C-alpha cells in the first residue's frame, strides 16, 4: 500500500492542505502567549496574620499553630511551612500539581474560619490569604518618590490608589508595599505625668477608643422631609485628640496633651525604604500561580500612565525593575538560534544534493512542519517559551530527516532512469514504512516524560509534546507534500554514453568525488570490520561499560542557572541590632551595590514583620542588559557578596533571581537543607552545630540560616503573691506592657479611601533602655501607682527573632550556594557526610528542601527514566517489525551516543542536569534512525531477493550511507548553535546542544560499523531460535497415549 499515491496524483489538493496548515500555524504563532518557562507552578496559597507587639514565639504558638492544625486536614497538601516574626505570621501551603487552586483556596478559607475560635481575642482582623508564593521573585517593582511629600503620605497613595488598581489586573498574585507604613496618629505618653495624676495607661486607651467612633446614629422622618442624624464623633488628625479629657483632678480637667505628645506620623516607625539613594515607597508585584508573566507585566505597564495621573504632580512613579526585557531578549536569542539552525540544516541538505530544485523541497517541508506545530501549541494552551522554542530548534534536524529520506530515495530512482512521476510513486512507497518507524520510535522516547507526575515531568511535557507534534507533522508532510513536489520539480538525470549520470558543474563534481571517496573508504573499512566481528562486538560491550563509568563520573545538577537580569537577597545585622543601627548599614550596602558598573538600580527596605525581622533588610538589584555587561548574574552576585564582606557589623547575601523556584521558602541562597524536630529545645541546641559545620565546607558558599535565636530579651520575673497583695492581676500587668511597648492600635479612623489607626505607646526616652522599666508604675484596682520593682525583677534572656515550622514541626533551614566548579551532587555528598559525623539525635531529621530536594528525586529517577525510554522504543520497534530480535539491533547504536554525550559534558565541565537528560533521551531517538535506515533496507532486500543477512546488511550500508550522513549532519548542525551561543539564557540551552552534538559525533563514527555486526549476530540468533523451535514443536504435539 502506498499512502503517498493519492497526494502525488492530486497536487492542487496537497498544496492547499499544506497552505492551510501554514496559515493556521502563522496565525496561532501571533496569538501564543510568551513566557520564560512553561506555566508549571505548584498551587500555592499564603495565609498572613498580624498582631502588633506580639513576639515571634507568641505568634507561632497562638496564631501559626492553630492555623496549621486546621489547614493540616486539607487534602492534597504537599508542604506547609510557616514563619513567625515580630507581630506577623505567614503560613505557606503548597498543594499537589493536580489540585485546583480555586478549590484549594476555598478549603483554606474554611480552615481559617474553623480556627477562628482558637485564635487570640486581641487579633483584630482574621487572617487573610493570597494565591501567591512568597518565594517567587517579583515580576515588577515600582517606586514612589517625592522631594516634598513625606513617606507616610506616599504609602497612603500607594495603598489607597495604586495597590487596588494593580491587584485587579489579571494574573497579579500579590502587591506588597515596602518602605513605610500608613499614616497614623501617634500618642506618646509620659509615665511620670500619668503617675502624678493617678491615671493608668489603660484609662488613656479607653478614653481614646471611646472618643473616636463612627456608629449608626439613625434618621428623622417628617411629613415632608427626611434627615440623617450625624455627629462629630470621628477624630481624624492629631489636633483633634489633644483636647480630649482623660480625667478630672480636683475639678480640673486633665487633657491628653497634659500627659502625652500627640502628633501625625505613621503606624510603624521602624520601617525604611530606598530606591537608589532616594527615600521611597516600593511596590513588589508577584504573579498568581499559573499566570502568564509577560501578559501580566504588559497589562500593569499599560496602567502606569493612568496611575501617574492619579498621583499629585510632586510624586513620581518609577519602574524600578522589569522582568519583561530580559525575557523577551532571551526569546529573541532563542528565535535567532532557531533561524540559524534552520539555515544550517538547509545548507547541509544542499551540500549533499547540490540541486536547487531538490533543496527547495525539504526547505519548504521544514517551515511547514515547524509553523504548523504552533497551531497545535495554541490549541493545547502552551506558551512560546525557552523550552518550547528549544523543541522547535531540535525539530529542525528531525523534521528535515523524513523529507531527506524520501527525497534521497526518489532521487536514486531518477538516477536509475525512472521518470519523475514513477520515481515519486515507487520511491515513496519503499520508504513509507521507514519514515513511519523512525517517527513512531522517536515519539516513544517521550512517553516516560509524558507520564511523569513530578515537576520535571510537568516542566518538560510541553517540550515533549511540541517536539512530538512537529515529528508527526513532518512525517505527514514527507509522505504527502514531499513526494508530490518531487514528481513535479525533479527532472530525470541525464546520462552519458556509458549510462553514468552527467555531473553538471565543478562544485557538484568536487563534492561527489569527496562523497565517493568517503563511500569507498567506508566500504573497505567495513569489510575489515566484518572479518573481525568478535572484536567489534567486544568494543560495543566496552562502550556499554564506559557509559556506566562516565555516568557516575559526570557531575550532576538539577537545572542550569539562569540570568534573569535581577539579583535579590538580604542584609543581616547582629541579632541584637536595633532599627536605628540597621538603617545606616542598609544605606552603606545600597551605595556599595550601586557602585558596581553592571548594576542599573537598587531597591532596599528594612522593617515590617511581614518582610523579615528587625535586624534584616531586603535588596532587589536590577542589572543592566546582558549586552551591556560581561558578567553573568551569578558572577555579579558573588562579586558583590565578596565586596560587602568589608562592611563591618552586617552580612550581605545575594543570589540571581530564577524563574524556577521549588518550595515556598524565602531564603538567602539558592539551595536549602532543613532540620526538623518536635522538640524546639533540641532543635535550638543542634542547629548552630550543624550550621557551624556546613559553613566550613569548601563546597558551599553564602551559607546562612533562618535560626535567629540570639536576640536580646528582657524578661519580667513577676512575684505573683506580691502582685496580688498589691492589688494587681496578671491581666493588669500584661495590659500595661502592651499599652506601653507594642505600638498598640487603640482606635480606627474611617475615611473615604482608607482606614487609619491611632497608635498608643510611651515616649521614646522610655523605650530605649531596659533599665527604664524600673521607673514605671502600674495602677492597681484602688488607683494607686505601684512601681514595677515592687513585684517584679528584670532578667536578661535570649529570644528568637523568627520561629519557623514545616508540616507543624519546628524547623531550621540552612541555605547555601555552590562554590565555583562544584555540582549539587558534590555539595549534597559533603553535607550528608558532615551531618553524619555530628551524630544527630534521632529526634532530629535533616534533608534537602526546595530545588535541592527536587534534584535528589530527579537523580534517583534518572536511570529509570532512561531505561523506560529504551523499553518504550523497543516495544514500538518490535510491534512495527514484528520481531523480537532486530529492535535490539537498532538499540545497539545507543551506547556510543551516550559515551559521546558524557565525554563532551566532562570536557566542557558542564553538569548533567535535567536539560542534559532530555538531550540523552533525544539521542535515543536520533541515533537509532541510522540503524533503522540500515535494518529496514536490509530486511527488504533479504526478503525480496532471498539474500543472506551479511550480504543484505552490507548492501544496506552502501545504499543508505548518504542519507545516514545527511540526516546525522542535519541533526548535528541543527543543535550546534545552542552550543556556540552566548549571553542571556544560553547556559540553559547549552547542555542540550552539548549532549546531542557529542552523542552524534561519536555514534556516527561507531554505529556505521557496530550495527552491521550486531545485525548479523542477531540474525544468526533468530535463525538458531527458529531451528530450536522447529525441533521441539513435533515432540510437544505428540499425543500422550502414543508415548
TrEMBL record:
Q: Which GO terms describe its molecular function?
A: xenobiotic transmembrane transporter activity
The entry's cellular-component GO terms read: plasma membrane
Q: Which UniProt keywords apply?
A: Cell inner membrane, Cell membrane, Membrane, Transmembrane, Transmembrane helix, Transport
Membrane topology, as annotated, equals: Multi-pass membrane protein
Q: Chief subcellular site?
A: membrane
- Record-linked Pfam families: ACR_tran
Domain of life, per UniProt, equals Bacteria
Q: Where in the cell is it found?
A: Cell inner membrane
Please give the Gene3D superfamilies that the UniProt record associates with this protein.
Multidrug efflux transporter AcrB pore domain, Multidrug efflux transporter AcrB pore domain like, Multidrug efflux transporter AcrB TolC docking domain, DN and DC subdomains, Multidrug efflux transporter AcrB transmembrane domain
| Transmembrane segment boundaries | 336-353, 360-381, 387-410, 431-451, 463-486, 535-554, 861-881, 888-908, 914-939, 960-980, 992-1018
Q: What InterPro entries has UniProt attached to this entry?
A: AcrB_DN_DC_subdom, Acrflvin-R
> Could you identify this protein by its name?
Multidrug transporter subunit MdtC
Organism of origin: Herbaspirillum rubrisubalbicans
